[in-house]
Structures are given as C-alpha cells and as structure tokens.
Write a structure and sequence with these properties.
Layout: H1 4-15, H2 20-29, H3 34-45, H4 49-57, H5 63-83, H6 85-89
Length: 92
C-alpha cells in the first residue's frame, strides 16, 4: 500500500511544477519501490499504464536498475520458453 503521507507531499510537488523525474526521486528517497513509483505516477499524474511504465523505466532516478531489470526479463522469458516449449508449439 502506498504511504498516503508521502503521496500528499508528492501532490504538493506536482502542484508546484515538479517534473516526473524529480517526483520519482522524491518517492524513491522515501522508500518507494519501482513498482510503487509506477503506481504513484499513475495516481499523481493521471497517466496510462503504458505511459507510467515508460516514465519510470526511462527515468534517471531508476536508471541504475534498468540493466538488471532487462536481464531479469530476458532470463525469465528464456526460462518460460524452455519450460513451456511444448505448449508454445500448439496442438500436434
């Protein structure tokens, strides 16, 4: 669950013109995870799922996690393909 007190402070930043990366930095410094930042961007800025994901994924605030997240997704997909290879081929 998102910390309501932090979100109230973040809303004030938005009202005062903070850009998305400044907002993400504020949230991360207060212990928000990447996923919680994604949810907060949706709530605070009214962004779509796709746009909120893009804002977080391409932000300077979360750039230190980009490489490890990409590696994780690639490994997960490769494992999924190996595990479900038969199912992916469809009926025989």
């Amino acid at each position: 669950m998102l910390d309501r007190n932090v979100l109230i402070q973040a809303e004030s930043l938005v009202r005062h013109g903070a850009n998305p990366d400044a907002l993400l930095l504020f949230l991360r410094e207060r212990g928000f995870t990447k996923f919680e930042c994604f949810k907060a961007i949706r709530e605070l800025l009214g962004e779509s799922v796709e746009r909120a994901k893009d804002i977080v994924e391409t932000s300077a605030t979360w750039s230190d996690k980009f490489s490890s997240d990409a590696t994780f997704r690639e490994t997960l997909y490769a494992d999924f393909e190996r595990e479900f290879k038969e199912d992916l081929r469809g009926p025989k």
